[in-house]
């Protein structure tokens, strides 16, 4: 009877041992996942605070005349674009610190002696890396393109003719600059008054228009100056534009020199149309639609006549954003073995090591990949994923070396 109970006792002992091992691994996963999460949040808060000061300096240098509200809006939009770099960097610093501390405290050695493979330590990091990949994917595919477009729209809306003229009237100045990259205009007057029926009356007006050179048509840069005894500026609320009417204008210089007219009207949009057709300003769903649309149009003599953009350019943008979204996982595979090699639980050492990896390894490799994509020296798939593939191979090789050592 005793011999018959032995297999059952052995089976019960094995089940208890497996349950104990499962409980240990679950506790281990929770411990490292919690430590990684706390360090990612802390690191992200620190580097974001540093990035805010840097971004504020850049925005102030580029836009020194904007008001406080626009300044804060531009800082927010630049910070949104920086999230695709801040999130992976926070992951890298946290991985180097947590796994470096575990190696310095001989936790890895203890786990190996207990029969737990060191690869088991990567599971909590992989779970957190996938979460950050999802966040980075959202930033790269939706938030960042929209933020870049708003970066162009906001300054243009603040520098439109209506707002500028209102500021000049209030401050008592007698000139205003407006226009865009293709045509810049300067309006100068001697006296200004508000019309009872609406609008502004300008006396002794000089309008200077500078047209930029056009490489496509071969047109050269040209400046035209027009004088008028009076000008009327009114706001067309229905069409959201400013109407500048010069009465009895006389062309002083330029292509229309010597010509006289009864009146000339200039129609100026309140918010200049900003080009959103550039691929970097479009979200991932829009790029996917462009990809499908490009496949439907056949090239003629090697050139796409009806396509909005070349298929290779659209594919390049899509793969670039997907590759950037995968960077937290790449940083896990690269940072974990380096942390085990250096065996340091010092946060400053972790920050320095992670910064060196980011500045001198990852981002230079990404720039090379961008050059390969832009110059079409390789297919979009190879160009955009070459950096991640190289760093992943280096990380896996280091990890195998560290584990076998």
Structural summary, described in words:
The chain is α+β, with helices and mostly antiparallel strands and 405 residues long. It has two domains: 2-157 and 307-404, no CATH class; 170-269, no CATH class. The chain has helices at residues 2-62, 68-104, 107-113, 122-158, 161-171, 284-296, 311-325, 327-342, 347-374, 380-404; strands spanning 175-179, 183-188, 191-194, 200-211, 222-236, 241-247, 250-253, 263-269. Strands 1, 2, 3, 4, 5, 6, 7 and 8 form an eight-stranded antiparallel beta sheet that branches. Strand 1 (175-179) and strand 2 (183-188) form a beta hairpin. The model has no long low-confidence stretch (mean pLDDT 79).
Strand content: 5-15%
Round the mean pLDDT to the nearest integer and report it: 79
What is the total tally of β strands?
8
Q: Considering DSSP H and I runs of 4 or more, what fraction of the residues is helical? A: 55-70%
Q: Could you say how many structural domains there are in total?
A: 2
Largest sheet: 8 strands, antiparallel
SS element count, helices: 10
Which consecutive residue ranges, at least 5 long each, have pLDDT under 50?
none
Instruction: Give the N-to-C terminal Cα separation.
Output: 50 Å
Radius of gyration: 31 Å
Write the element-wise H/E pattern from the N-terminal end onward: HHHHHEEEEEEEEHHHHH
- Quaternary state of the chains: single chain
* Helix/sheet category: alpha+beta
Quick summary:
The protein is of the alpha+beta class and about 400 residues long.
Describe the protein's topology:
Layout (H helix, E strand, L loop, with lengths): L1 H61 L5 H37 L2 H7 L8 H37 L2 H11 L3 E5 L3 E6 L2 E4 L5 E12 L10 E15 L4 E7 L2 E4 L9 E7 L14 H13 L14 H15 L1 H16 L4 H28 L5 H25 L1
Antiparallel strand pairs: 1-2, 2-4, 3-4, 4-5, 5-6, 5-7, 6-8
Helix pairs in contact: 1-2, 1-4, 2-4, 2-8, 2-9, 4-7, 4-8, 6-7, 7-10, 8-10, 9-10
């Amino acid at each position: 009877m005793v011999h018959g109970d032995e297999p059952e006792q052995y089976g019960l002992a094995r089940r208890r041992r497996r349950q104990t091992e499962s409980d240990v691994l679950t506790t281990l996963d929770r411990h490292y996942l919690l430590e990684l999460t706390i360090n990612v949040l802390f690191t992200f808060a620190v580097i974001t605070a540093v990035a805010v000061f840097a971004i504020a300096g850049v925005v102030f240098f580029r836009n020194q005349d904007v008001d406080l509200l626009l300044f804060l809006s531009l800082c927010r939009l630049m910070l949104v674009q920086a999230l695709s770099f801040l999130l992976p960097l926070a992951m890298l610093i946290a991985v180097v610190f947590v796994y470096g501390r575990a190696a310095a405290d001989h936790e890895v050695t203890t786990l190996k002696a207990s029969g737990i493979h060191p690869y088991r330590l990567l599971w909590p990091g992989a779970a957190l890396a996938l979460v950050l990949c999802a966040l980075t994917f959202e930033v790269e595919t939706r938030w960042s393109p929209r933020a870049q477009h708003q970066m162009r729209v906001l300054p243009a809306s603040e520098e439109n003719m209506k707002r500028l003229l209102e500021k000049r009237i209030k401050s008592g100045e007698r000139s205003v600059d407006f226009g865009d990259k293709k045509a810049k205009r300067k309006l100068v007057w001697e006296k200004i008054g508000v019309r009872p029926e609406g609008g502004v009356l300008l006396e002794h007006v000089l309008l200077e228009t500078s047209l930029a050179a056009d490489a496509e048509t071969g047109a050269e840069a040209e400046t035209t100056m027009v004088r008028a005894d009076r000008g009327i500026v009114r706001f067309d609320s229905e069409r959201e534009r400013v109407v500048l009417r010069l009465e009895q204008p006389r062309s002083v210089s330029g292509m229309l020199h010597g010509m006289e007219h009864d009146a000339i009207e200039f129609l100026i949009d309140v918010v200049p149309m900003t080009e959103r057709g550039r691929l970097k300003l479009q979200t991932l769903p829009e790029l996917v639609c462009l990809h499908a649309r490009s496949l439907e149009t056949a090239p003629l003599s090697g050139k796409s006549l009806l396509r909005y953009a070349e298929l290779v350019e659209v594919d390049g943008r899509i793969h670039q954003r997907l590759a950037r979204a995968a960077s937290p996982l790449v940083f896990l595979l690269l940072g974990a073995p380096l942390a085990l090699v250096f065996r340091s639980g010092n946060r400053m050492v972790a920050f320095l090591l992670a910064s060196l990896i980011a500045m001198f390894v990852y981002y230079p490799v990404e720039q090379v990949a961008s050059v390969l994509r832009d110059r079409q020296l390789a297919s979009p798939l190879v160009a955009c994923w070459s950096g991640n593939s190289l760093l992943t191979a280096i990380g896996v090789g280091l990890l195998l070396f560290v584990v076998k050592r």
